[in-house]
């Protein structure tokens, strides 16, 4: 495929290409342009030209177009889902579900656009009024990761478009195809040329060129904390706004009075979804001692039922996307084993027919984990859970907060007062009590501490693409 710039397919100015590899087989499934600073400049200038007209479109028009794009996503969900399945390796039904759920978020953002308003005070004297309104921040650079490439793009694109901004997206090198397909689908659905552009290339090369370019006014990034810090530092050169959704090392607390069946079902489901490749998954679990061994037993039983999907076969979980991501799971499992932890389940790479060509790692449970182990301190981004006993809920809370991350937290406790106190005490942007649902499209999503800056989703996401503007009005009072 080619890059999508100003409503048309375009090769890289250098003519160079990058391979897109299927994680399940290690085979090349397509190539995309290896873009550079020249390609970034072309896309950014196309977005700037398009924004001159797009920001003047009445909100009702932008809403109608966005809803049409959302429906187009649903109409092409199977086609885009198959592309996502090939480039990411996640089982096909989950890939299709990502497309349709992302379309729902576009609709939510469109609805929020209709609720935006300005205000006008009565003024200090006759013939004086003060209007506070909001305008689109400008051209937006959206840099997205591999794990949920469409969902995390829609976090940014849907809010930016409804606010009146135009976007240049840079998808991850591992998963660019689904994003490129979506750009053409949106254009065919009526999104004007240049409003949504997609460039491809290696992160530091083309990403740095986009971040340092003088035209864009905002960077929206989801990815690792180290990269987010570098982006934030670079953005200060031109005072760009930033929204950064970064790493997580999310903790779950299981109290002695918890509904253990519900707790272990939720933790197993959430901790291993997408083979653990998402930022707000359960990464570590603190369990009060009276129920510790029972929680381990139930988690092992439930996680043990999850199956890996071999090439050409069926299963619950796909391969890890590449060797770099796989190495985190292997390293943290080995580190815990060497430091005396019990490996209750998994812990080594899955091999054999249908698995040898991909980086498959089974659901892994590390019991008796201690704070000196990597699994309890660093983001895994893989199907590995660290589990530790604690003597009290307060100890669990202290250990949960002893982290540079603050994206999500989870509490299981029948005592509502105690559970709410723990939720309020967790230093995290989102906290779940007694179950783990998908993050809602209507409420803010983002992290504290080194898990990021700003919020996405709902009206909070739209507002992050708007600037306040104050207008002071004076006029002659006729009577």
TrEMBL record:
The UniProt transmembrane annotation reads none
* Keyword hit for Oxidoreductase: yes
**Residues covered by the Aldehyde dehydrogenase domain:** 9-470
- List the SUPFAM superfamilies: ALDH-like (SSF53720)
Q: Name one GO molecular function term.
A: oxidoreductase activity, acting on the aldehyde or oxo group of donors, NAD or NADP as acceptor
Provide the alphabetized UniProt keywords.
Oxidoreductase
Q: Name one Pfam family in it.
A: Aldedh
| Similarity field | Belongs to the aldehyde dehydrogenase family.
Recorded hits in PANTHER family, A to Z, give: SUCCINATE-SEMIALDEHYDE DEHYDROGENASE, MITOCHONDRIAL (PTHR43353:SF5)
This protein is called NAD-dependent succinate-semialdehyde dehydrogenase
Q: Report the source organism.
A: Pseudooceanicola lipolyticus
